[in-house]
Amino acid sequence: MRVGVIGVGCSKFGVRECTLQELAFEAVMEALKDADLSQEEIDLSVVGCVGTRSYELMPAVVVNEYCGFSGKGPLRVEAACATGSAAIYSAFSSIKVGIAEIAIAIGVEKMTEVDTATSAAIGGRAGNYLWEHHFYGTTFPAYYAMHATAHMAKFGTTEKQMALVAVKAHRNAAKNPKAHFQKEISVEEVLGSRVIAHPLKLYDCSPISDGASAAILASEKAVKERGLDAIWIEGVGFSSDTSNMTMRESFVGLRATRLAAEMAYRGAKISEPLKSFDFATVHDCFTIAEIMAYEDLGFCRKGKGGEFVEKGESDFGGKMPVNTFGGLKAKGHPLAATGIAMVYEIVKQLREEAGKLQVDLKHYRALSHNVGGTGHFAWVFIFGR
Amino acid sequence: MRVGVIGVGCSKFGVRECTLQELAFEAVMEALKDADLSQEEIDLSVVGCVGTRSYELMPAVVVNEYCGFSGKGPLRVEAACATGSAAIYSAFSSIKVGIAEIAIAIGVEKMTEVDTATSAAIGGRAGNYLWEHHFYGTTFPAYYAMHATAHMAKFGTTEKQMALVAVKAHRNAAKNPKAHFQKEISVEEVLGSRVIAHPLKLYDCSPISDGASAAILASEKAVKERGLDAIWIEGVGFSSDTSNMTMRESFVGLRATRLAAEMAYRGAKISEPLKSFDFATVHDCFTIAEIMAYEDLGFCRKGKGGEFVEKGESDFGGKMPVNTFGGLKAKGHPLAATGIAMVYEIVKQLREEAGKLQVDLKHYRALSHNVGGTGHFAWVFIFGR
């Protein structure tokens, strides 16, 4: 019995003057309207929220209350920046088990409530607490900077190649009214922006954005009974990895991504990603993360990610358009909202409702790739129409 | 395809001088030994942790790392004080879907890291934030005090009847080496203890305990292949309710409990609870909560819960022995650990490994009932051997 996505919603990402629950409401209402459903028709609500930059420590309670799901939301899930995917999984598996016919996954994050210094003191802990974070002060940009320098040293990846990821992201986001940033930038601007953690500069980093997203999933039975047009979940993959960076086998990629992709590809019987997907959404929290994702997901060989973006292969018309809505880098990265915002993008594209950002469809199949921490968690979903 | 529990572990509950991950380790190692498995044989680890009284805001990362599941733990779940049950559900549904054959649910809470005042300022938010919590100062004892006064006014329930719940809990806990409190108390001591929120006194309230618990679940296939003795999950029920107490239909019970029980009973085809279960574990965060649970779970008519405990019906030899290991009230209530500690108790009893606390078995079937907040979340599981 298949499970499909029948409705999606996404709030405007950015610095938002509203509460956590109001943000969620914006996405939920769009998703309900999209699926032509009322709250009463939803059997289960799964709320994804990390919450390290918000004062709301039991977010499912207030979000469900405000969105009209107070009788339908028995749990919250969290997997750092991959929380949205964990929420999709929880809704998916509840339907698959037969416990729900229609379920909503909500991802919401109020990121501008707690300041960065306070948040870093706690949020940085997804790394190895004692040694890396407290003793050496490694925060997320520093972790990804280690990946970037390793990739540069081993494969000759350049700062310009990384900059091209940011330029592409901003160019796409400029056409996406829901994106945090809607201004194009040049390679020179990226290279000239201030250094955050060498070699990553300001424009190599995703922003601190408030945002919410929602996806309504339904059983094949419910889809058919209602005569709906669903986007089917064809593959599910997840993995996790040590949080102790000194124990990682390598810095030039994320093992969790590789293992999650293998699991999803196995389930969906995908052997050649480039010949199977029309486009992909990947976790580009930093520009180097997108380059590593091309490789770890099998879009190009390990070490060739820099070339892949330089040749335009991840742009419209390339071998695998990636992050057509602007990615985490320019659309924004409200932690728990990110994984479900990827599903929003995939559904819009596969339905050919992406307007100026529409990709050409041939396989009617796409992939989402969502990472938590620095590869502590990884989730991959495959969607098909 | 059924799912069964094949191994359980539980740390000593109490004020523990160790970290969150060390606590979890204690429970995990016992569960692995109980199931005769190594970490490598586990496909999935689900970590339940509320975290409002701990500094570890992404607990799954550190817990999985320390317990040897760094490659196996793609998510954390939370449902306030019902978090442990949500973790059981997540492991259960992952096996049921076929994504895992063997999964571990870990519930862990470090409660003595953040002081009560700080925690109340944030943790109390599972109530309606603006009106109840900030304006009127309602904390958890105050919420349950409202339930108690309503129950007394409507049904004549007495403070002595509530005290009897505490006396029973302490009597059982005194024989449980893992319990936080191991000292019997008298009705007079309960009635004479200081008032926390009238009519609830100190001994009507569960303590602030550190603790962890773990349960290993397996598919029927894995159970048979290994020739194991499993305790089967025969019913699953959940519900949630408004966090705005002014919108609740009544204060003399918890609607979420009733709905969760209905769902679980329907799934397991239970029509007469008293004739179906040998014993039950219920969510006695306050003595009045246990009395309401007798009624909401169908062990007696609404309003008769006080009488039920007074006549010894919830004690050994009664119609439905409840909380034979001491309950939240005396064994302790480390939020996320509680729901899985109930499974620990059920497995030990159904295997007839409960020693001095063993109940007589006839149906070889029992129930766990776990509440989040003041009935914001409720989970009911039915287990059978």
From TrEMBL, chains A, B:
Keywords, alphabetical:
Isoprene biosynthesis
Give the Gene3D superfamilies listed for this entry.
3.40.47.10
Q: Where is the Thiolase C-terminal domain?
A: 239-385
Signal peptide region: none
- Cite the SUPFAM superfamilies for this sequence: Thiolase-like
Q: Name one GO biological process term.
A: isoprenoid biosynthetic process
Q: Where is the Thiolase N-terminal domain?
A: 12-220
Task: Answer whether the UniProt record assigns the keyword Phosphoprotein to this protein.
Answer: no
Transmembrane segments annotated in the record for this chain: none
Q: Which InterPro entries match?
A: Thiolase, Thiolase-like, Thiolase_C_2, Thiolase_N
Single annotated GO MF: acyltransferase activity, transferring groups other than amino-acyl groups
This protein's name: Thiolase domain-containing protein
